[in-house]
Protein: Chromosome 2, complete genome
Organism: Gibberella zeae
Amino acid sequence: MTGSMSVIAKWIPISTLVTGCRASDDGDDFSNNLFSDLAPLLALFGERVTMQFVSQSEGWADNIILAMAPIGIITAIVASIRVGGPPWLKAVIGRARENLAVSEVELMSSTSKEVCEVWNGQEVVRCMGLAPVIEFICLLQFADAGQSDNQPNPTIEVLKLEEAIAKGYIKDLDNGEMPKTASTSEVDEEQGNPTPNPCSPTNSHSTPTTKKRLQKICLIRDTSGDSPNIILNCHPSANRRELWLFAAFGTFLQLGVLTYSGFATYHPALKFQKDKKPIESYAYPCTAIGTLVLVLGMMLCGHVVESSTDEKRYQAVAGWKTRMVWLQQTKTVSDQVFNSHMVYAKDDRQTITKSRRSNRHGKDKSNTTHTGSTAPGGDDPSTFLNVVTITGTGIILCGFVIHFVGLRGMHWSASIAQLGAILVMVCVKAWVRRGLAKSPEREPLPSGFELDLFTTSLGGIATEAWSGGQGNDNVSVNTRLPGGAKTPRNEWRVVTGGSSSLNVSEFNHVSAAEPCDGSIFDAQALLDARKSLTHLAGWKGPASAEAVSLAKAIECTLDAVNVCIPNNPQNLI
């Protein structure tokens, strides 16, 4: 009797567990506690993924990609409020006294006098402050070597962006018109140069044996005063057709999830059940309506952030090869020390993009940013942007609640399908912004001599990496000497002045016997280019003050001597 009672006692817990188990779908038991809630809840998070994506948005295609199978819903709401919300709504999220520059650093693609992009030694970063960086758009014009043998050495022209557009070297893609007075061939004829070959070496279909000769270099700088856009121009941007293709893909993917959920609920062959009961009548309508409303709200919030910047695109006319170079001085920005570097894009640029704070919805805020004012009144967007932000925020909140309630009443496979769509669109967003993972090329420069080294590189431009040159097979470019020093970029030597503390002979054993193919300019041409770059960039060298003082002293001395010398200098002999 005792033995039988012990056996019964052992089976009591097991029988209790068996009795407590519900005869329901195992998928519902598991997924309702995890995946069915994970899909809508996961959509609330994903802060960094969303911020990275919206910070590079430039049109409605980006907004559609952001909205389909959305992730980072809270981030989208907060981002739109920070950029375009009214003060009371900013106070709700704890951003009542936030300077617009803080939002610009994190959420916009633009740069200004308060926000800059600099190279920190490992990658390009955005930070608050005035950038110690100048941007040069380098246009290289080539012609067949056989047609240019009797022509002078290539010329260097330094000019502002507005002048380059007026002369026809660059066209503004937003305006869509070329200046009538400004064809490239007309400008060349005025300067006595022949009409260039309309094909650059990179686009030429000529035979491999045809040699191209550099005919002209144009160095162009935007002198507006805003920090240059490095991230947008250091790597090829996503093609607009590609963006619209992914936007269409995301739309079909989201509609496909809703279509599957409808079939799973109403199709006679499927008609899945939940807990062995038919799915509630409210489930699918709430899921479909909530999803569509949520997508609409995400598109509006994405549009608020995207429209906060204005992008202008430029393109060189046919016959020019475009390279981008950024020179960075040693400077402390926001308590961070950035060393001198020359940063340049790896490939030729098809278009040049400039992003600035937008003023299309109200007053031009860029005029007030340099003062550093943090007053909310100075950063208020227009009423239109306020309305769009409030509307988008309300639509998102309503849509998410309806969407969440609907998914809770659906079969577990509907939640899994939505979760899969979210993960797929995360991969799409990462692929669209794949260029952010690529760092530009860079070279360290001695502090204070950035313009000097860049100008000197023009003398050997055929072997310079920033120009896309492959170098000379007989010349080792940037060969390192014992001790880590580099060989000089060109064959320039100081031949006067007697002895010097600099031992130049140590470089002789690595220098080529003949000048490299890139050394095509004489010293005076480079000095003239250096002078023009100084005026264009506004950078003074470390010896500028001494040089000016010396020039003034020489001028004063000559003036004094001229007074003392009689009209007939032969009388002094």
Notes: The chain has a mean pLDDT of 75. The longest strand covers residues 133-144.
